[in-house]
Write a structure and sequence with these properties.
This protein is of the alpha+beta class and about 160 residues long. A 3-stranded mixed sheet has the order 1-2-3. It is elongated. It is built from 5 helices and 3 strands. α3 packs across α4 and α3 runs parallel beside α5.
Length: about 160
């Protein structure tokens, strides 16, 4: 589109149109960021989910989630102008708050497993107790190369 900035000189011209020379004189450097790829958003979501799982495990409860959960969260953030920031909010609203409510209502106790899975575009939580063999726990996700692979920009 016409609003796209093609190179550094184009960027400087756009900045001059919107900001005073006094303000621009105080800027040391302008750094451009490319949008995160869906793969990177998925890795970030997996890392955040694993952090939540660690916190919940301190209460004696295991959190497991299917591979579709981080993908669903990443898809919800894909068109966000805020990059990966909404991931944390989605996890809080769709996982952490409902799990907290289960703790406070007594529906969740030590030794239980909370299984998160995607159903019809939403995250569904299921509680399984250790003694209950009727339900199967879903595997925890560790993003591939989470410790070594850099995050990728969308191409």
């Amino acid at each position: 589109t016409n609003d796209e900035v093609r190179d550094d000189s184009d960027l400087r011209e756009k900045l001059k149109k919107h900001f005073s020379p006094e303000f621009l004189g105080r800027i040391d450097e302008v750094i451009r960021f490319a949008p995160l790829s869906i793969t990177s958003l998925c890795k970030i979501a997996s890392l955040q989910l694993n952090e939540l799982a660690k916190r919940i495990s301190q209460r004696g409860v295991k959190l497991s989630f299917s591979a579709t959960v981080p993908q669903l969260i990443a898809e919800k953030c894909r068109s966000s102008p805020f990059g990966a920031r909404p991931i944390k909010r989605i996890i809080i609203n769709e996982l952490e708050n409902p799990i907290s409510e289960m703790f406070f209502s007594g529906k969740l106790s030590k030794g239980a497993t909370v299984c998160a899975d995607e159903r019809n575009g939403k995250i569904e939580l299921t509680v399984t107790k250790d003694s209950d063999n009727s339900s199967t726990a879903l595997a925890e996700i560790t993003p591939p190369g989470a410790d070594t692979a850099p995050l990728e920009a969308a191409g």
